Amino acid sequence: MTAIGHYIVESDIDNWGVAVSATCNFNPSDVNLADNKITVSVVIATGSVIIFTSTGMMPTPLIYEQIYYAIKVDATHIKVATNPVNAAAGTAVDLTSQGSGVHTVDVGEGSSTVERQAVIDRAEQLIESITDDYFYNKPFVATLDGNDKDRILVGLSSDVLSVSKVEIFGVELPTDYWTFDNQFVYLDPEAAVADELAELHLRMKYQQNLFPEGVGNIKITGICGWTTCPPAVKKTTVVLCKAENDPTLYQRYGHFDSERVGDYSYSKSHKYLTGVVEADRLLTPYLRSRPMLGAI
What is the pLDDT of residues 130-141, one digit of tens each? Predict the structure, then answer.
């Protein structure tokens, strides 16, 4: 199992902490409830730290990511103890269900896949909160108030990449009535079929109020974000992950009062800061400008 984000994967980072000494997957059928044994594909010594995760339900009563200790039964079987003393004494946890999905056991106290995934997730979430953007294909469903016009703003922070459905009062509008750009859905004036008189009349009737006034009466479904992640955003993610793993690698804003790079001024009080200078430099071109409310 590999830690994977929207922008990078685990192998893009070269300064992870010491990895766990071994990892193996096992199925619910490998959990023997009668003997409280688990079949494993690696040799795990008694007293070893073990951490369980699962794609489904954990075997009861094991807790996701909690530290347990192994009791070696033989080369391919272990039991689970709640502490080192119980492991040494052979006192095992009573397993009462096999769980579901694919289970994983990490051996050792190093950086597990789950921990690495959390670092990647935090870096990507920070980038998205700073840029107000998604650098991948993100599904959206926007519920809007009708404006009695033939053009409506979807109102997303990211660009609209595609629209699959437009509904008015719960009724889906035929796809040949509308089109879209990166922010709006609007009446398509060139889509009318001349030999379909009924359709043409309907389009003419509603050409100025395709989206009738109402509260939450328009629903638009589609994809927003970016078709491909820019290299600078990928590099930013790597920098943020490496900086979390080793805070001494990069210059941080606590080391100086301010700096100017081109037209962008860095300061400790700037609201867009990640806290890492190199990361902010990379993200600068992707900061969306905010409207100045109340400006004349």
Answer: 999 999 999 999
